[in-house]
Write a structure and sequence with these properties.
alpha/beta, Ribosomal Protein L25, Chain P, 2 domains, 7-stranded parallel sheet, about 25% strand
């Protein structure tokens, strides 16, 4: 059985035998929801490559006292994968973030595409972004990720075009594209950006701005915006050392 994972910046610099305290929201969840007891083991990660296996030495109402048993550091995996996700309607955005996190995406960029049905403005933008980030954190722990993905601020189309220009490989998913995603060359690639359009599709103006990227299709069926990015990244990662 896998050990439960919690997020804590305290593991940075920790060594075997170090005593730590897990408190705050993570400590409360561990103590009151998971009901973790003295003698049990947990894994703490700082989300930046370091994880520590710890034994519980003390419990409180909203905290755990821990002793570090072992520490492990993992380098950031290559290639670095960014998914630009056009804002879907309803809770499909959180579903997309959850699945993208589980399959090991490094950065998720919410995008205000021209034909996005949902619109983030004012307080709604802050609440929606907070939900995306919370979904990513929860999925990271479930997936036992050592490196947490970054969920950025809302991007506009010009910012997405700039991300594509900087990437070693930029891909824009489009159901009418001639080139299949499977034909993409990934040799020696260090960074990949995948753009997923909205329910209403991409405009001609957006496609023009994304001219530096490869316009590619996944297959013959048209996927929902909340699942297209997951399918595309899985197809790409299966051809890299990250999934070998």
């Amino acid at each position: 059985m896998s050990l439960p994972v919690f997020l804590s910046g305290a593991v940075g610099g920790a060594v075997e035998g170090t005593d730590l305290v897990l408190d705050g929201d993570e400590g409360r969840h561990a103590a009151t929801v998971k009901r973790i007891r003295v003698g049990e083991q947990v894994v703490l990660t700082d989300g930046a490559g370091t994880s520590a296996t710890c034994t519980v030495t003390e419990t409180g109402k909203s905290s755990l006292g821990l002793r570090v048993q072992s520490v492990r550091y993992a380098d950031r995996p290559v290639p670095h994968v960014t998914v630009v996700q056009a804002i879907p309607k309803g809770d499909r955005g959180e579903l997309a973030v959850e699945m993208l996190t589980e399959i090991d995406v490094d950065r998720i960029v919410p995008w205000a595409a021209t034909r996005s049905v949902a619109v983030w403005r004012g307080d709604r933008a802050a609440r929606s972004l907070a939900k995306w980030r919370a979904a990513s954190r929860a999925a990271s722990k479930q997936a036992r990720r050592t490196w947490l993905p970054e969920v950025t601020e809302l991007a506009d189309t010009d910012e997405v075009a700039a991300l594509l220009e900087k990437a070693d490989v930029g891909v824009v998913l489009h159901e009418s594209a001639q080139a299949p995603l499977a034909a993409l060359s990934l040799d020696g690639v260090a960074s990949i950006v995948v753009v997923v359009g909205p329910e209403g599709g991409l405009t001609d103006e957006e496609l023009e701005l994304f001219a530096t990227a490869t316009i590619a299709r996944l297959g013959t069926s048209v996927l929902r915006t909340s699942t297209a990015g997951v399918a595309a990244v899985a197809a790409v990662l299966s051809r890299t050392a990250r999934w070998s």
